[in-house]
Amino acid sequence: MKEKYKELKLKYGLPEYSWLNNEFEICQIEAADFLLKDIVKKITEKIEFYAKTLEELFHPESNIAAMHECDVFDSEEKKKMFEVFKRLLHHHRTAMILDLNYSEDAYAKHINTLFKEWPKLRSDLSTIIGKTRNCWSSPISSNDESGYFG
Questions:
Q1: CA dist 126 → 5, 23, 118, 123 (Å)
Q2: Would you call 149 helix, strand, or coil by DSSP?
Q3: What pLDDT digit, counting tens, does each position of 93-113 carry?
Q4: 134: Cβ–Cβ under 8 A, 6 or more apart, which residues?
Q5: Most buried among 49, 93, 128, 129, using CB within 10 Å?
Q6: CA–CA separation, 148 and 150 (whole Å)
Q7: Rounded mean pLDDT of 3-30?
Q8: Which residues are CB-neighbours of 147 under 8 A, at least 6 positions away?
Q9: How far is CA 140 from the centre of its chain?
């Protein structure tokens, strides 16, 4: 698989294998027949995970954790969070279109685009997730003790 990736890297100017592997665990890909397609699938799995996490914060419904976490963001932070969500969904939907219309060139272009955009997305996600994590170590005020307990 690494040999096939080296060929594709040279052909399309793709990022280093080690970077992709560190970020998206592409070493788990077994076959090399549709390597770029499989790499985009691995990337999309991660994007989908974070998009669903953000979506729960926007619409917590009956998810107790999300209900508590969404309250730590003010309206300006929620706007920024929605911009991150939009960027994630744009990449997710692009991957869906690529899946419907296979083109090795298009997959390579998408990987290169994500290579450029991922560091900022990762940083923004880290800030958001860090804030949700921190809310669990803060004392709960009497106003926050909401929820249904039977």
A1: 29, 13, 12, 5
A2: coil
A3: 999 999 999 999 999 999 999
A4: 72
A5: 128
A6: 6
A7: 95
A8: 64, 67, 68
A9: 29
